[in-house]
Amino acid sequence: MTTDLDAYWMPFTANRQFKKAPRLLSKASGMHFWTPEGREVLDGIAGLWCVNAGHARPKIVEAIRAQALELDFAPPFNMAHPKAFELAERLVQLTPAGLNKVFYTNSGSESVETALKMAIAYHRARGEGSRTRLIGRERGYHGVNFGGISVGGMVANRKMFGSMLTGVDHIRHTHDPARNAFSIGQPQHGAELADDLERLVALHDASTIAAVIVEPVAGSTGVLLPPQGYLERLRAICDKHGILLIFDEVITGFGRTGAPFAAQRFGVTPDLMTVAKGLTNGCVPMGAVFAKQHIHDVFMNGPEHLIEFFHGYTYSGHPLACAAALGTLDTYAEEGLLTRASEMEAYFADALHSLKGLPHVIDIRNIGLVGGIELAPIDGSPGKRAFDIFLECWERGVLIRTTGDTVALSPPLIISKTHVDQIVGTLADALKRAG
Ligand SMILES: Cc1ncc(COP(=O)(O)O)c(C=O)c1O
């Protein structure tokens, strides 16, 4: 086992603190991780919102193994391999009607960059080159590349990195605990916050705006649900002004909210949709952007021998990723996992909301198999209360995640009621101790 922790600069981690007391994982199966010492840890966050079918699923493992033997790599520019097409056909059977073109990437961040570029290029290709402005939302998370942090709205992810993209603006976030705290499922108040887009249209003029990007359920910023009617209103305003609506479904895609995609759960279809994570069950890096037919078709002009969209990655549609994704889709289908969160939602919600009244709990939010428990911050030390709870749960054999002072839960979709009880029971004990 590695003993020197020095060389590895860890992502999104308090490196110095981690290296004083490392938390290592060396094995995983089903709902569990194991540490190198053999301690079992229940996975309350599907790895990082990605291992939706649970760990080390045989069909996926076998698909990757067989693919590595058969075809390790094929160039994706002007060449292809059959599984990239097979996967695309399978995926568009699952997406909301109309989102029937697939562009492959390798991560959520790359999917976001791809969708933003597609939106701007689409308007230009159809003769409205003035539509270059991108609109995000406060508290949004769209990965870590320059486009994503520009439309994103989490200050810590932005403040160190200069002026970012120009021509970006943000609508208001939807977090409103004064009116919506402890809502079960979608909160009642706040549909009118979508009208903030009208404010930006009035300021910039619709003729300058290419697209609006939002997460249907904001995850990284602390599990914020769309108020009832909010997404519908956003869709209507986009339609009115010819603005493309992009849903970033990197965490909500592949069953997290109880339907294959949150767009279906909420009954609102975007023009472009970004995914990653659950696409391959987290086993091999892969992302994708789904586009409506008419967006794709606008590019299919000009001489046929010329590239239509100057964008793509060396590893777009990588054979191992395609194989992993096909094995993942088989596993989801065989076990009904893309709708299982809706069967578990009521039990999960009851368990989560039983934490109301425990020390420092100021809000609880839930949908499908996503939960957010917001804690009152310690004066002068934002984030510390939740992080202490995370450490306590880790010691007691449950992996949770925190963002700011919100505990976020997103367990594998194979979770049983006993596992729900263990996660929530451990969290309750930790909260009581912290009190
Ligand atoms: C909504 C959303 N978009 C984009 C990303 C970035 O994905 P990745 O870390 O794969 O680049 C994430 C990651 O959590 C996400 O939650």
From TrEMBL:
<comment type="similarity">
    <text>Belongs to the class-III pyridoxal-phosphate-dependent aminotransferase family.</text>
</comment>
<dbReference type="InterPro" id="IPR015424">
    <property type="entry name" value="PyrdxlP-dep_Trfase"/>
</dbReference>
<dbReference type="Pfam" id="PF00202">
    <property type="entry name" value="Aminotran_3"/>
</dbReference>
<dbReference type="InterPro" id="IPR015421">
    <property type="entry name" value="PyrdxlP-dep_Trfase_major"/>
</dbReference>
<dbReference type="InterPro" id="IPR005814">
    <property type="entry name" value="Aminotrans_3"/>
</dbReference>
<dbReference type="GO" id="GO:0009102">
    <property type="term" value="P:biotin biosynthetic process"/>
</dbReference>
<dbReference type="GO" id="GO:0030170">
    <property type="term" value="F:pyridoxal phosphate binding"/>
</dbReference>
<dbReference type="GO" id="GO:0004015">
    <property type="term" value="F:adenosylmethionine-8-amino-7-oxononanoate transaminase activity"/>
</dbReference>
<protein>
    <submittedName>
        <fullName>Aminotransferase</fullName>
        <ecNumber>2.6.1.-</ecNumber>
    </submittedName>
</protein>
<keyword id="KW-0032">Aminotransferase</keyword>
<dbReference type="InterPro" id="IPR015422">
    <property type="entry name" value="PyrdxlP-dep_Trfase_small"/>
</dbReference>
<keyword id="KW-0663">Pyridoxal phosphate</keyword>
<dbReference type="InterPro" id="IPR049704">
    <property type="entry name" value="Aminotrans_3_PPA_site"/>
</dbReference>
<keyword id="KW-0808">Transferase</keyword>
